[in-house]
Amino acid sequence: MAEIFTATVVSSEPAGLGFHMVVAEVRVPFAALPGQWGAFHTDLPNPEKPGQTLRRAWSFAEIGTSRFRLFVATVGPATRWLAARSPGDTLSFTGPWGSRFRLDDGDGPVGFFAAGSGISPIGAMVDACIARGRRARLLWETPSPSMLERVEAWKTAGVHVEVAPRLHPQPDGATWWLAGDGARLDEVESVFSPTPERIERFYTPKPAMQATA
User: Fold this and answer.
1) Mean pLDDT of 5-26
2) Is 182 within 8 Å of 50 (Cβ atoms)?
3) Cα separation of 90 and 97, whole Å?
4) Could you tell me what percentage of the chain is helix, strand and coil, using 3-state DSSP and rounding each to the nearest 5?
5) Do the Cβ atoms of 139 and 84 come closer than 8 Å?
6) 129 CB contacts (<8 Å, ≥6 apart)?
7) Dist CA 37 CA 58 (whole Å)
8) 43-to-51, 80, 89 alpha-carbon distances in Å
9) Scanning 20, 72, 92, 121, which has its CA 20 to 30 A from the CA of 204?
């Protein structure tokens, strides 16, 4: 049975147009790699499995040995439940999971395309590139730029960052990772020609993002 971790919510705040940011502190040392995710337990009943509660997978947007950040689109009961957590509340989860969508150990230039909440795993990968001194480019499609201090920190560290409701990417020879809205990734995948291991699709309703189509 997977180990269940507990974390205490440090902050919980809206991030604009249907997105929410939660920072939590883990009670025991916790190690996750950029691109990995946790399976979080809610106290909501699971309509498909009577007697069980809903569990949802959310990628770690920022990872430390004692805390993590989640950036989610509040489009369903579980994400709305997460957005309703307050500082001091407890989160339970298993993980980290995900051995496929992870930044490799190379040293060549890399590019990241994030659609909406795809910035969650992508942001952790950008942090890793900065720590390793690896040249990186980030394209983030979002109707509501958030995490502005973090975005500016990426730019200051030398990452080429573009943030807009709709971007028109062009291949540039870098190795690319894609994450976020599955329908949008289906549209741009051929531009980048990444391997399946470098794509993480989130198939959820996206009222905020659809408004910018």
Assistant:
1) 90
2) no
3) 20
4) 25, 40, 40
5) no
6) 103, 110, 135, 136, 159
7) 6
8) 11, 12, 12
9) 92
pLDDT of residue 212: 30
Q: What is the distance between the alpha carbons of residues 190 and 84, in angstroms, rounded to a whole number?
A: 38
Q: Which candidate, 99, 86, 112, 66, places its Cα nearest to that of 22?
A: 86
Cα dihedral 50/54/56/62 (nearest 10): -160
Encoded tokens for 139? 């394209």
Tokens representing 204? Answer: 């959820």
Question: What CA–CA distance (Å, rounded) separates 131 from 99?
Answer: 21
At 99, give phi and psi (nearest 5°): -105, 0
Lowest mean pLDDT across 3-12, 99-108, 175-184: 99-108
Confidence check: pLDDT of 146 > 80: no
Interval 158-176: pLDDT, tens: 999 999 999 988 878 889 9
Q: At 126, list the tokens.
A: 């950008």
How far apart CA 65 and CA 30 sit, in angstroms, is: 5
Looking only at the bridges linking them, the beta strands covering 62-63 and 67-73 are antiparallel
Q: Which DSSP category does 107 fall into?
A: -
Domains, in order of start, for the chain: 4-97 (2.40.30.10), 110-210 (3.40.50.80)
